């Protein structure tokens, strides 16, 4: 990713802006989103899926990164939006996303969330379990609405990714297994329920998956199962939603597919399988999150101390860490880095990049070769668009960084930097007892 970024003189530029201008204007740590890179990728998805025999919904998995700006942008470009909580739903609605273009996911949608979503006119519920089925039916009946649902099924595919982000194994907490005897009777109940419209099936095999074969197998299993369901109940499947999970580049260890080539092969595979089994869903949907946004995001930090220890690599301390990017501590995720103001200097030293949290594990990068690092330099970690800001925390009462979108030499703040005031906004002083 760093290889694709523009360098001017000795300095990194993002969206036509020198990194020093960004840090001067907006401070650090800072999440920077290269808007053209993002919209180009949105167009790649849309273009590849334009000329099929089936219709497609490209549904942005907003858990990867969402805020009003992002939700507005993806919906402007015609994407649908996947939400998994009342908060993500609220954000999408406030951003003006058409409720009909929202998919509501999650294994434990709360009664209030279901209520809000039904009232808002959310276009599709991805049903997870029988309790949710009951709640949804009650709500639909009360509101006098017929709700479109997909059933989340588990096709039992083992995708090779980190265990925490694997989803379609047989003991997964998500959905119902296609091998479970109870699943067809459950589908029957949904079909016969006059408050629900059974529109089809959904599956998601995991995240950061690189094996094309896993995605192809998912297509085969899902289409086969859909055919089964069609024949068993003499219905026609309206939609098959195949989820997201397309792997992306973080470091040289990752070997992602070239996106448009992969999508071409994927679509061909879908088309031939659909033809072979003679099944014609109106819509085949996918739900990319990471593969849409990750490469467009970078995080900028200011280097504080550079500290030698008695053993190991010298530390570079940055003004953020696990609070703005918990992926290394959660998943041992790896990243690359560069010193944004020394792009013309060769690497001379291996460093370890650590954050400022009171926690030994708060290490963003275990080892990275860089030019000589000095206090005040700007460290850039690219490929941080997905699951960083959206998983950030206030641990140690550290304020969340700002999010800035950049394009053509211009910048707009999408999310303001948090302040100390924000940190205590919901706190109360003791009122009920004399101390
Ligand atoms: N659809 C469903 C139903 C999902 O559960 C997910 C991700 C996606 C789509 C989008 O997957 P993507 O295209 O982004 O891989 N926090 C973890 C990733 C968790 C993914 C959860 N579900 C991480 O930082 O790696």
Shape type: globular
Low-confidence stretches: none
Bound small molecules, by name, code or SMILES, are:
ligand LLP
Number of structural domains: 2
CATH fold topology of the largest domain: TIM Barrel
What profile does the largest beta sheet have?
9 strands, mixed
What's the CATH architecture of the largest domain?
Alpha-Beta Barrel
Annotation, overall tally of beta strands: 21
Count of helical regions:
12
Please identify which CATH superfamily of the largest domain we are dealing with: Alanine racemase
What's the CATH class label of the largest domain? Alpha Beta
Fraction of residues in helices?
Answer: 25-40%
- Strand-pairing-aware structural class: alpha/beta
What portion of residues belong to β-strands? 15-25%
Radius of gyration: 23 Å
Mean pLDDT equals 95
Distance between the termini: 56 Å
Structure notes:
Its EC number is 4.1.1.20. Keywords: Amino-acid biosynthesis, Decarboxylase, Lyase, Lysine biosynthesis, Pyridoxal phosphate. It is an enzyme of class 4 (lyase). With 435 residues, this protein is of the alpha/beta class. The strands form 3 sheets. Strands 4, 14, 15, 16, 17, 18, 19, 20 and 21 form a 9-stranded mixed sheet that branches. The chain has an 8-stranded parallel β-barrel with strand order 5-6-7-8-9-11-12-13, surrounded by 5 helices. The chain has a 3-stranded antiparallel sheet with strand order 1-2-3. The chain is 30% helix and 24% strand. The mean pLDDT is 95. It has 12 helices and 21 strands. Helix 5 (111-120) crosses helix 6 and helix 8 (212-233) packs parallel to helix 9 (259-277). Bound molecules: ligand LLP. The site of ligand LLP has 23 residues, from helix 10 and helix 11.
